[in-house]
User: Fold this.
Amino acid sequence: MSVKMKELPISERPYEKLEIYGEKYLSNAELLAIIIKTGTKDETSISLAQKILNLKDNSSEDNLRFLTDISIEEFMKIKGIGKVKAIQLKTVCELAKRISKPISTKKIEIRTTEDVANLFMSELQYEKREIAKVIILNSKNIVLKIIDISIRRFKFYMY
Assistant:
């Protein structure tokens, strides 16, 4: 049987640790544990978070982008992660993606292909689908609107 969260020293409990030291001092497992909130009778939320981090070959310890590829069903295969917790995890992943998108309140001018690449790099650099976009410009090359016209999954073939 694992140690209960209440049995841990206050300085090692994720909520209290964040409050005392700040979010930058929490491990990935501790941050996920806060999202998960509760564990099971046999495991803490930290040990559930660690199981999530072990779902994929995570060669870079700081890289959490693989979480966006995990389906609700895959999260639910972990004992202690039900539908609600899986949905919460997917929601946090989507929020993180949206936060990384550039703020579109400023006027963006397109003069070169580099400008187009810079416009979409943070949004599309880890995308697993092919997305065709149309950029509508005014006569001064200022972006008026961006429309997704096609989205499809990549198909990988082994030769």
Q: What stands out?
A: The chain has a mean pLDDT of 84.
